[in-house]
Amino acid sequence: MKKSFNRFIFAKFFQSKKIGGIILIICVLISLGIANSAIGEDFSNFLAQKIGVETSYFNLNYSLSAWINDGLMAIFFLLVGLEIKRELIEGELSSLKKASLPILAALGGMIIPALIYFLFNKGEETASGWGIAMATDIAFALAIIALLGKSVPASLKIFLAALAIADDLGAILVIAIFYTAQIHWDYLLMAGGVFALLLTFNYFKVKKLWFYLIPGLFLWYFVHHSGIHATIAGVLLAFTIPTNDTAIESPLEKLEHFLTVPVNFLIMPIFALANTNITFQKEMINGLTSPLGLGVIFGLFLGKTIGVTLFSWFAVKIKLAKLPSGANWKHITGVGMLAGIGFTMSIFISLLSFNDPDHILTAKFAILCASVISGLIGFMYLKSIRKSQ
User: Fold this and answer.
1) 95, exposed or middle or buried, with CB in 10 Å at 0-12, 13-18, 19+?
2) For a tag site, which of 34, 57, 184, 224 has the least CB within 10 Å?
């Protein structure tokens, strides 16, 4: 019964990511259209408008763009954290046998792209952006592989989902450790106190979600002011929500189901609208041949393909894992290509990496180009495998 329940959970997860990815593509196109229209400057000014309250005791007065990137994206990271925890407890990452292939593939898909980016940008002022090429956009990647239908084994879709979730965990750790500029220890201590309270609730098996969500707001505020990016609060909160490995729906699964629709169909599209507003200029083509542009494009497409394939081969070679049912090495290579779709998390890390608007713009354009290249070539490559068999 539990096995069928897990399949139901994954089916809902996959379907939501598939449709969400399609909506995300539409919002990217709309955002690009707005940015290159007569209302492009007005839209940028609108995003810069401040909303909130500021007193001598607390500060919640930020631009609309900041609320999207620090506030709404914390909810996105909360959902990502819930998905990761569920997979660790009862899903594709719940045992060494299940987890070894996607985790090692994800590890290769982070190390090799970061190395390629570093080689292009060593000694450059853009060297800090090495984390950009490490991320995989799970919604876009699953949307593309869903379009292949029965052309690829169902197990390959599960493998890609598990790989992307493990990749998200890696990206979260990278953001928390390497993209924190300055620590304010007083706020961090208060955040630690709230987190300890949440762990206590979990220990005593408190199942009412409000006991976690209300303190979670304070956790977000304290983490935000500590210097660590506020979105990490979403992940910390997620890891305190109770779950189980039975067929009975847990508080974690209830919250995950509740958040799936607003995150995939509202929050992610809003993020895309706000952060893909790239105004095309002739100079941007030159940006693609700069160390930053080349590092992102080769890191995402070539690095992901090599990293995922090479580390998967190593895992199978040492008999730590085996290939997904019905899949071959060509399929794994194709998944590596799709893993190069780094849109959402890559753009997010680029915003944390640079202060120079020109570097951010170049990174966004390179991410967009690399994601399109990875998606198109990955799709055509996997489609050709079916025809050649």
Assistant:
1) exposed
2) 57
CA-wise closest residue to 24 among 340, 374, 268: 268
Q: Are 338 and 160 in contact (CB under 8 A)?
A: yes
* Distance of alpha carbon 10 from alpha carbon 4, whole angstroms: 10
* Tens digits of pLDDT across the chain (389 residues): 455 555 555 555 556 666 777 888 889 899 999 989 999 899 999 999 999 888 877 888 899 999 998 899 899 889 888 988 988 887 777 777 778 999 999 999 999 999 999 999 999 999 999 999 998 887 788 888 888 878 888 888 888 888 988 888 888 888 888 887 678 889 999 999 999 999 999 999 999 999 999 999 999 999 999 888 888 899 899 999 998 877 788 999 999 989 988 888 889 899 889 888 888 877 778 889 999 999 999 999 999 999 999 999 999 999 888 888 888 999 999 999 999 998 888 988 998 899 898 999 999 999 999 999 999 999 999 999 865 55
Distance CA 182, CA 197 (A): 25
Three-class secondary structure of residue 180 per DSSP: coil
DSSP string, 351-388: HHH-S-HHHHHHHHHHHHHHHHHHHHHHHHHHHHHHHH
Enumerate the domain spans of the chain.
2-53+62-179+229-388
Q: Which two tokens stand for residue 51?
A: 């909303």
Q: Which among 358, 12, 363, 342 is positioned nearest to 144, based on CA atoms?
A: 342
| Fold type of domain 2-53+62-179+229-388 | Na+/H+ antiporter like fold (1.20.1530)
Residues 6+ apart with CB under 8 A from 304: 109, 112, 113, 133, 136, 336, 337, 339, 340, 342, 374
List, in sequence order, the alpha helices (H) in the chain.
2-35, 40-48, 64-66, 73-90, 96-121, 138-147, 154-178, 185-203, 210-226, 231-238, 251-262, 268-275, 283-288, 291-297, 304-317, 329-338, 343-353, 357-388
Sequence letter at residue 164: A
